[in-house]
Amino acid sequence: MNPFGYTRAGDVAEAVRTAASDGAAQFIAGGTNLVDLMKERITAPSRLIDITRLPLRAVESLPDGGLKIGALVSNHDLAYHPEVVARYPLLSQAILAGASPQLRNMASTGGNLLQRTRCYYFYDAALPCNKRAPGSGCPALAGVNRIHAILGASEQCIAVHPSDMCVALAALAATVHVTGPAGSRTIEFAAFHRLPGDTPERDTNLQPGELVTAVELPRQGFAAHASYLKVRDRHSYAFALVSVAAALELEDGKIAEARLALGGVAHKPWRDPTAEDLLRGRSPDDALFARVGEHLVRDARGRGHNDFKIALVRRAVVRALQQAVAGGSQA
Amino acid sequence: MLPVMGDETCAITLKVNGATLRLQVAPWTTLLDLLRERLGLTGTKKGCDHGQCGACTVLVDGVRINSCLSLAVMRDGASVTTVEGLAEGEALHPLQQAFIDHDAFQCGYCTPGQLCSAVGLLAEGHASTDDQIRELMSGNLCRCGAYPNIVAAIGQAMRPRRSA
Prior knowledge:
heterodimer, A: 331 residues, alpha+beta, Uridine Diphospho-n-acetylenolpyruvylglucosamine Reductase, domain 2, Enolase-like, domain 1, five-stranded antiparallel β-sheet, 11 helices, 27% helix, 19% strand, B: 164 residues, Ubiquitin-like (UB roll), DNA polymerase, domain 1, five-stranded mixed β-sheet, 5 strands, Xanthine dehydrogenase family protein subunit M (chain A), FAD-bd_PCMH_sub1 (chain A), FAD-bd_PCMH-like_sf (chain A), flavoprotein (chain A)
């Protein structure tokens, strides 16, 4: 690791002020990704602003029926929180599908949103990477790209977002609360992460100095019919090749409301409202689910080694929707 | 704490295996390096140093974490338990005894991390079946492949022992 300064923030205002005064400083909470990136010299902050003593550990029920999750709530505590287990099982399943118990004990809610891609080329400082060194090129395009994006990629970057939790948050239509030098604001989850385009160095739409303070879930939790399906090279402690968050509201045998989000396929959790439109008002059946899977990959493009992900999405979507109807978790 | 610059060290207090220590650490010192290099507690292992193998697992305030990804300065005020702190004098921790009873290791390199992780698993209380033990021990790799015996050992420590 390169040497760096250290500040322990006493309150949110101090944390944001310190970040605003030093553009090369970074916030640190769990550190599970950031410390690793610093060891690999992928990032070299001038200063770490330790936010772990800030009062952002509450999980609060809101008057409108929603749930507000403090940015420092650990992935473990969130996955097993009684309100989350009972009302948002999709979120609990997704969190427990990711990382290891030790990492979930350390990792924070806010940090999970901000983890960086695990693209091998991004992690190898000896090689070009447009995300790490803008303009240097993308070796993944013609290289080993088995884990890479099939949707929403660009000729600059085909990296994928690594989070499981964020796929569930996308399906649940969460909002992100942030505080920055210009004050506080909320960001809809779909607008939080970015597609790579010509600026793959930017993962999110956070502005300089902005700190994630909370994630808010709306009232509708799809508790009866939700499933997170994660397909990976080994059964535990591996990143998704493809994952599907499926949530349904069933009334009188029809789909009254539907949510679908994909992980492992794009630079951000992939939610396509037109696929959800196909489900709404229809009776759940496998033929319909197959059409939805087909629809989701209509613009997909494989890059060679990852071509298999296109067929995998089609089939995983069907299975995730079947599991959601049955109300169960991953078989 | 006042902010420190890139060339300064920070004063922290840590309780390590019951002993309270006042230490000066550089901000980039990991908890793992502090334990091994400064405090001589070499039971905790540096396997991958990237949070992937679990050999560095210790308990911080009773919670299992990867010490290789934890900056010591951020643990100011915490209580750390390493494998050296599990036994009570000559009396082994029930998990240590269970690992011996079930021959739950071969080379032993991953064992300190496996033990601390298993102590954390028991405290968390989310596992009751062998499948759940396997899933919730997935953060600890064993290159010798002692997994079946590790699961059996943790199962013994978790469940009241059947009479012989």
